[in-house]
Amino acid sequence: MYSYSDFDEAFVRARVAQFTDQIERRLDGSLTEDEFRPLRLMNGLYLQLHAYMLRVAIPYGTVSPRQMRQLAMIADTWDKGYGHFTTRQNIQFNWPKLPDVPAVLTALADVEMHAIQTSGNCVRNVTADHFAGAAADEIEDPRPYAELLRQWSTDHPEFQFLPRKFKIAITGAPKDRAVTKAHDIGLRMVRNAAGETGFEVIVGGGLGRTPMIGMVVRAFLPVEDLLPYVEAVLSVYNVLGRRDNKYKARIKITLHETGQTEITRQIEARFAELKPLFGGQDQRLLADIRAAFAPPVFRTAPTDAFDAFYRADPVFRSWADTNLSPHRNDQYAIVTVSIKAHGQTPGDATSDQMRVLADLAETYGHSDLRISHEQNVILPHVHKSDLPTVHAALVKAGLGTANVGLISDIIACPGMDYCALATARSIPVAQEIALRFNELQLEHDVGPLKIKISGCINACGHHHVGHIGILGLDRAGVENYQITLGGDGSEDAVIGEKTGPGFAYDQVVPAVERIVLAYLGLRQSAEETFLQAYARVGIGPFKAALYEADARDAA
Amino acid sequence: MSRFSPKVITANRLREGDVVYLTVDDRWTPCHHEAELLEDEAHAQLRLLEASAQKLLIVGPYLAEAKAGPNGPEPTHFREAFRTRGPSNYPHGKQADYAL
Prior knowledge:
The structure holds two protein chains of two kinds.
Chain A: H1 6-27, H2 33-42, E1 45-47, E2 52-57, E3 62-63, H3 65-78, E4 82-85, E5 90-93, H4 101-110, E6 127-128, H5 143-153, E7 168-171, E8 185-191, E9 197-203, E10 215-222, H6 226-240, H7 251-258, H8 260-278, H9 281-292, H10 304-312, H11 314-323, E11 324-326, E12 332-337, E13 348-350, H12 351-364, E14 369-371, E15 377-383, H13 387-396, E16 411-412, H14 427-440, H15 443-446, E17 451-454, E18 468-475, E19 478-485, E20 497-498, E21 503-504, H16 508-522, H17 530-537, H18 540-554
Parallel strand pairs in A: 6-7, 7-8, 16-17, 17-18
Antiparallel strand pairs in A: 1-2, 2-5, 3-14, 4-5, 4-13, 8-9, 9-10, 11-12, 12-15, 14-15, 18-19, 19-20, 19-21
Helix pairs in contact in A: 1-2, 1-4, 3-12, 5-9, 6-8, 10-11, 14-16, 16-18
Chain B: E1 7-13, E2 19-22, E3 28-29, H1 41-52, E4 58-67, E5 74-75, H2 78-85, H3 94-97
Antiparallel strand pairs in B: 1-2, 1-4, 2-3, 4-5
């Protein structure tokens, strides 16, 4: 993986020293909270409901065993023994104390990590396909481009005070696992007629208050034009984007107010100005970065042990069926480790679990770990013969849940259990749905079904693109949950449709159960997924299942 | 003009970040029921000014809706009720630290 250059190292250390000084000046009263707040946000430090929260970037979701162990050490030393993996491939510590933050940041810098640009109106942590460099369907590993974007965007003087935050996602595969269409800029690698690789550039996607699927502004961008083109998009947005109203400040609104044709014209005009200025320096840098992402030396060995276990052990088989994905080397598999044990908080890993993951990655996974936006941890390169051993170790650590892509593999934001912006809780809703379907022993029958829960309209839980989306709101001082159906975060991205009136906290799980039972009743076969059935029958039968029973009871 | 509804003053501690309430004798307490219940609007605004001046102790003071209870002020909104305890997924925060 990429290792810090001397420049990166010096930059991160200088920032730690600078922010340490700012914290000291806040604590001695030289800085007021109004002065300090933007400084701490630039360094990923929030003040939440019950405590401070530090958001640490995991660039493009890639983390080494050494870094994972350091995160575990930080959790044990300055937090409560766990960390929360987020929907943007970050990790959050929920309980740091302000005077300890400099020590935490120093410990992060020791392993080439930081919390810079994880908040504020700047280019945020660039996210990527969590199967990058391993997926069977991939054109090219997108992470060198993500790293190039990270270096370019870090402390970029022109883009430190954008109208609003700016999120870039990148994938090198046709199957979109990075929700690129719901980002300010989504980059999807494609090939043109001549077989050359480039990017389809999608702009103006985003969830939140005004959910939108992004529009294609360039169908084929040669890979060498990436930086000047992205800089052109940012540059046009920086001028046109609205600073008068924070609810209209994201590029998706700029795009709609300006029009796709006009904004595309402006981007292309700016790109023509910028391209000559880059002078090839970015390409030399990219070549160096690429070398750091060279694939591991794959082992060649028999896979009989895997086949034998698969036939003999139903628990292993169930896990293999849900948690493994095809690797580009057919002797290998991609392991998705579920951080969604039934009844546990989605995305929370204890320090012990982090150390187990680090050990497994080192021993069996070519020292590579990934964090997915779906709040799971990936071992991207495991030889199939090692899978039974890896599975056994995961089970022992409480990480062996066979539910990836199923109903209990729920994305949930921290919600009102932690977040100062939340309007309702998300975590307990996720916990209860998972427990209920585990009790019913239904989730393997139900098959692929993504539930996504947000505790406020900002949609960190991606509820708009959940097959079943749940949005927690405050309705006259009571938690109330709005349900959407048919959302999809894949390459066929679509925003879900609202079912109707919301549900009280204790009615959400029964409501989800009615939706799922309705699906089981109307699907044409076990092969027809929830999303396919929804596309065929529409929202009507689900609305009937949700509301007509209530109407009958009331009558 | 609508009648002023009772409030307490709440904030987060600067160093620890935990939730605290202003008492009648100018202490910051983690216990909601020890807070001063403010039933007069002018007095509430004055107390908020005094609280806001304590920049080395607390962050973000505000008036939160509350009501009188048998043991002292009680929160009326679920957000404020969560703030008295801590998260619902773990026994962390005040519910653990103070055995509430």
